[in-house]
Amino acid sequence: MSETERILELATGLAREAGAIQRERWGTELQISTKSADVDLVTEVDRACEDLIVAALERERPADSILAEEGGLREKPGSTWRWVVDPLDGTTNFAHSYPCFCVSIGVELEGEATVGVVYNPIMDELFHAVRGGGAFLNGEPIHATRETKLGRSLVATGFAYDRRKSHRDNLTELACFLDRARAIRRDGSAALDLCAVACGRLDGYWEFKLAPWDVAGGRVIVEEAGGRVSDFHGGPAPASGAQMLASNGGIHDAMLEALAAAREEDAEAQG
C-alpha cells in the first residue's frame, strides 16, 4: 500500500467515526455558542469530532501538519503532508436538525490538494478522490454533468457569516444567477455542494469568504470527477477559500460572465 493509499484509508475511517458521532447526536439537545458572528455557530459535537480526528492524526501521522477549524494550525517543521479538517461542515444545519451536514477532510502534499474525503452521515454517503485517480461515491465512480447551458443548469451558493456587516453579501451575484440559471439552491454546506457538483446533482456552485477547511476536501473531488474549479476571474481557486467557483466545466465560462456582470453592477452602484 502506498503512502497516499494509507492516508486515504485513514481519512475515510476518521470521517466515518466522526460522522457516527454526528448521527448519534443529531436531533438531541446541544450546547450552542457563537464564534466570529452571531450566525457563526459551534457546538460540542464540532469539538468532539475534531478532537477525535486530531488525536488520531497525532498518533498515526505525527510528522504531518494539521489545520482544523476549531483548533487552528499545528505546523510540523519539515512536513510535506498537511491535513485540513472541517469536523462538522454545516453546523447551523446540524443545530437546527436540518439534515445537510458532513465531515470534510482534505490532505495536501507540498501545498497541492491531493486527497479529499467528505462523509454525509445522514445519507451514509462517502465521497473520496485522490489526485489522478478519479472520484467516487461509496466506491462507485462519479462524474460531473455534461450540461453546457447555464439556462438549463441547477446551481448553488452560500452566504458569508459577516453578511450583516459587509456590503459584499452575495446578493448582487445571486440576482445575476437568478436571471441566468434554471434554479438556485442554498443548502448550507460548502463541502456537500462541491460533492454535488462532482456527482452531477448540481451543475455549478459559487461562494466567497469561505475558509480552507470548507473547500479542501471537496475541490479535489470536483476536479477528479471532471469538473473545473477556479476563482471568480478564471484563475486558480485560492486554497484559502476566499473565492470558490466550481462547475461541470461546460458552464464555467457562463458562470464567470455572471460573476463579472455582478462586479460591474456593484461598481456602478458604488460609483
Task: Please summarize what this structure is.
By secondary structure, the chain is α+β, with helices and mostly antiparallel strands.
Instruction: Please report the number of helical segments.
Output: 7
Rg of Cα set: 18 Å
The CATH topology of the largest domain is what? Fructose-1,6-Bisphosphatase, Chain A, domain 1
How many structural domains?
2
Main sheet summary: 8 strands, mixed
CATH architecture of the largest domain: 2-Layer Sandwich
Task: Classify the beta-strand content into a percent band.
Answer: 25-35%
Instruction: Point out poorly predicted stretches.
Output: none
> CATH superfamily of the largest domain, please?
Fructose-1,6-Bisphosphatase, subunit A, domain 1
C-alpha end-to-end distance: 59 Å
Could you state the order of secondary-structure elements as H and E? Answer: HEEHEEEHEEEEEEHEHEHEEH
Helix share bin: 25-40%
Write a structural description.
The chain has helices spanning 3-25, 44-60, 91-95, 171-180, 190-199, 212-224, 252-270, and strands at 32-34, 41-43, 65-68, 72-74, 81-89, 102-109, 112-120, 125-130, 135-137, 140-141, 154-156, 183-185, 204-208, 228-230, 243-247. The longest helix has 23 residues, at 3-25. The model has no long low-confidence stretch (mean pLDDT 94). It is of the alpha+beta class and 271 residues long. α1 (3-25) packs antiparallel against α2 (44-60). It has two domains: 3-141, Fructose-1,6-Bisphosphatase, subunit A, domain 1 (Fructose-1,6-Bisphosphatase, Chain A, domain 1), CATH 3.30.540; 150-270, 3-Layer(aba) Sandwich (D-Maltodextrin-Binding Protein, domain 2), CATH 3.40.190.80.
